[in-house]
Amino acid sequence: MKKRIAVIPGSFDPITRGHLDIIIRSAKLFDEIHVSVLHNTKKEGLFTVEERIALIEAAVSDIKNVKVRYFSGLLVDYCQSINANTIVRGLRAVSDFEYEMQLTSMNKKLNDEIETLYMMTNNQYSFISSSMAKEVAKFGGDVTSIVPNHVAEALWSKFDIKK
Fold it and tell me: What predicted TM-score, i.e. pTM, was given to this entire model?
């Protein structure tokens, strides 16, 4: 039987508990998950790609079927290169859907063999974003409920906050 491989793409700057929720739940559905870190040219990153990969690897170290990789270029080309036929995307609210639908339509146009699976984030994480985590951490706020503890420490370190 063919391995079920899925890609969870994102900038993950930084990874949040909402991202982890999607990763953990997806890992139960697929044989292999590739958490694929991209450099988003529309956003200036706080963490380097290497730092983001290290933070994600630490967060998912106990999930055996999850791999963390960097990619650039077209997502569908990356999926094809690793034999993935599914892209998993998390949705926090209806407002996320319009943008995600546009991405899915373009990906389908480029490669109609790759499916996109949308997963609703659990309600407790529906308000969380990487941008919000950075903003709260920048002013010394406690972000441990929205990002893993090691990520909170990395955020505070970036902003020179002593905790």
Answer: 0.94
